[in-house]
Amino acid sequence: MIDYVNKFSLAGKSAIVTGGAGLIGREIVKALAQARSRVVVADIEEEKAKHLVEELVRVGLDAQYAYFDITDMEHLQGHITGLTRRLGYIDIWVNCAYPRTSDWGKRVEEVSLESWRKNVDMHLNSYAFASKYVAEEMKARGGTIINFGSIYGVLGGDFTVYEGTEMTLPMAYAAIKGGIINLSRYLASYFGGYNIRVNSICPGGVFDNQTPVFVQNYSKKIPLKRMAQPEEIAAVVLFLASDAASYITGATIMVDGGWSAV
Q1: 67 labelled catalytic
Q2: What does the pLDDT average to over 215-228?
Q3: Residue of 65, 133, 173, 218 with catalytic role
């Protein structure tokens, strides 16, 4: 009889989560660690990351910190090679980092070409080359890469959810996330023969103490009538990272409470 529960175990596997100290990233780190992987919190936020590592190590889980700036394109390959040598191998790589410029969130009419180019370079290009370099490292024994897209990489924006707030959907965000999703399909096709799986997760809105007006507007749109919690995204990452998803690659997984269904 197949041991289905054991398929979700990550015992003996090494995992790296970029942006691992962030809102969603920290829950991904916890999920992978609890599934018994050796997990690295790869982030520029050293204090937050080290606090998370201490929290996990205190309860007997295997976690460590590595300073990692995904936007440092000139040294990106060297940093990934260094992490591979440090761990021996990389089985799981999660691109959850969310780099952006200080003027992120401006309305379309206010977006400059310079800002557009910088955000695409920081986010889309860094995901692309991090995935490429990691896949090259994984060739010898296979592995899985999980990239973070968004519902807005698949669908157009519903700007009514921002009414009564200062928020908006940045134009660059839609282009970046759409690019990441199709990039993941491409890499899944190209590296599939090496037993490397590449998938995208597309979350809907995740609750992060946004203004009540936005939360109300957004929740009305969702069949489940609420925003996501970070752990609900992390659980899907855990599934895709595990052998339970061994025949899933090139997929775009919507984790949006039904947003894309209506």
Answers
A1: no
A2: 98
A3: 173
